[in-house]
Amino acid sequence: MSPDDMVDIFRRVLETDGVTADTDFFESGGDSLMGTRVLSAVARARGVELSFDDLLVAPTPALLADRVASVSR
Amino acid sequence: MVGIVPAFLEMDRTFPEKCAIECDGRGTTYAELAHRVRATARELGPEPGPVGVLTDRSEDTVVALLGILAAGGVYVPVDPAFPAARQRALLEAAGCTRVLGPTGLRSAPDALPDVMQAAAPDPARDEPHRASPDQAVGDPAVGDPEAPAYTLFTSGSTGRPKPVLTPRRAIAASVASLRDLFGLTPADRVLQFASLNWDTCLEEILPALTTGATLVFHEEAYTGSIPRLLRAVAATRVTLLDLPTAFWHELVRHLAESDEQLPDRVRTVVIGGEAVSPARLAEWRARDTGRVRLINTYGCTETTLITHAVDLHGPEAPGPGAWWGEHEGVPVGTPLPHVTDAVGPDGELLVSGPALALGYRDLPEVTAERFVTRQGPEGPVRWFRTGDRVSRRPDGHLVHEGRLDAEIKVRGIRVDPGEIEAHLTAHPEVGVAVVVGTRVEDRTTVTAYVVPRRADADDAALARQVLRDLRASVPGHLVPHRVTVVPGLVHTAGGKIDRLGTHRRHSPAAAPSAPAEHRGGLTEQDNR
């Protein structure tokens, strides 16, 4: 999953276009409930079932895309 | 009314070999659980007073809860993930001198009183038996029904949480009603999903363990991932789910978008905590959920777990329920058998009956404000003023219309915006602040408007810093979604800070011409 795909997911969930690969989910209005939407979207797109803890340690599209890549490798 | 501890020990006598708790696949029988409960009660000694419990997702927390109740003490759950200062404040406010918790949680020894270890099972000591000298502990109807059973906290405007003292009679009355409401049987398997630090978890634990049902803990249920939760529910054959409404909204979205179904053993889904979104309810109905009871519930910590309920969908939903949510709010239901309610002249819901709390510990003025005694036809009656504005429909169902004060609901947790404001203004770089909750569709967003203490502050950097500092110092439900730095707050003609006025001026999304104040718009009210 490319960082761009992840940026799209963040944009949909955070309902803002102002997301880049380095936007911090939790500093942009994200919370644990909205986090479930990111996890569900990643699971649908890639079949990788991340946890909320993954999002906590990798809160930007770039970091989270890296994490998906390392899990699915 | 049979107390919780005798009701649980009755299950030990009836189903000693039945699984009481299944934790990540490992089962504990009623006999083993009762044995651990008695051991904990013995270790605490009689009348131990308020005992803090550092909660975790395992049977240890259930053993601590029942052990403290069996000893005649007061259960005070504390989330070990909370910042240490918060843990200390909660323990002090509840009057705890001792804390039960697994070793390894002594990360802040100066912040916590003496930590003693939860009584671990000791197979060498003795077999679970029914005639031991410690049988006296917890077996008789323990103590005075007016004595407190547990202390939980609600948000306070001063920044200090308010400890609610819940007596034994309240929990006994409420749990008896909930066993009936849920239609629980010993064949049921109830997922422990709710946070162990709020009262919803007691809706899961206590009705199950006083029916002979099985309480299921599963680590995959707490990952924040709905696909993983659904897999855990299917694998553990859970029959009853109790979810915060805000989380249920996300579950419905997920089911609709992924075209998945609820695992087929689930027969009941209980929701509560805020207003049900009519859009999510319609999506739920459109799926294959006709066999599942969807029960909407309402209740306050001060009135013990659930006081009102209604089946919104499924086999026991009343016929006219089909149109609920299409033209007006989704109802929160009718009072349970142990509850008496009344609607005051200003629309405020008042609740009476044995489930009322004793009050707020060491806060007589706040207690007198919210717990009022009014003359009834048969003498004085004590009522709790919920602060919730409701209407009663011709069919008797209550509909939640909003709040009489500024309280908001954050992911199902009651929050006084004043509490967040108190934490914000304690920040060295913040002068004044207001907090506003806005509800859009099925979600509440909490926005803080802060005025910097220094004129030369970098707005974006300050907003980021305040958010980070808050995340480090207070629990998540007190952290706003957004911090917006503004030059000044809006005041009313009378000189008071105007929360909504500040929001309207500074929020790009809240233009004054936008439809507001109602469902889907700007609201400073909470909707359960």
Automatic annotation (TrEMBL), chain A:
Signal peptide: none
GO molecular function term, any single one: phosphopantetheine binding
Annotated ranges, domain Carrier: 1-72
UniProt-listed Gene3D superfamilies: ACP-like
Protein's name in the database: Carrier domain-containing protein
Pfam families tied to this protein: PP-binding
Top-rank taxon, per record: Bacteria
Native organism taxonomy: Bacteria, Bacillati, Actinomycetota, Actinomycetes, Kitasatosporales
PROSITE patterns: CARRIER (PS50075), PHOSPHOPANTETHEINE (PS00012)
Keywords from the named record: Phosphopantetheine, Phosphoprotein
Protein's GO biological process: antibiotic biosynthetic process
